[in-house]
From TrEMBL:
This is DUF1468 domain-containing protein. It comes from Chelatococcus daeguensis. The keyword Secreted does not apply. The keyword Ribonucleoprotein does not apply. The chain crosses the membrane at residues 12-34, 49-71, 92-122, 128-146. Residues 23-154 form the DUF1468 domain. Coiled coil: none annotated. Keywords: Membrane, Transmembrane, Transmembrane helix.
Amino acid sequence: MSTNERSLVSRFAMEVATGCATLAAGVVVVLGALEYEIGWDEGGPQPGYFPFYVGLIIIAASLGVLGQAFLNHRRSREAFITREGFARVMAFFLPLAAFTVGSYVLGLYVGTFVYLAGVMIFQGGYRWPFALAVAGGITGFFFVLFERWFQVPLLKGPLEALFGIY
């Protein structure tokens, strides 16, 4: 890590958080399995047998992760994610989240068009006419592919209803 790059989250913090989360999941699995019998009978393993031991394995692995994190904590000051790395992840994630919400509200085809055009213009640096043409072409291709050829209707929104496309 360079001196001008500041760590947003340390590797140690993420290892501890992951170890605790998987430990909690393992405990939930074990407790859930204990609601059933966990032994063997004449028919073989009882309903809680496999989940119980899988939960124990998860707990053991989680304790191993936690132990290793604490043993190596003093030697390593490695960053899990830096501000620059977080900004890159958000540059990918936020448009994708907006696409998901937009597709639900506006319909899949309009959401696809807006997402592709927006990413091409704002992240890719393409000019508006080219980005709109590519987004329109791809969206039109998907519409023909799914709605006409495969006859699989996808999520429609108010704009498709306005034009009578159902």
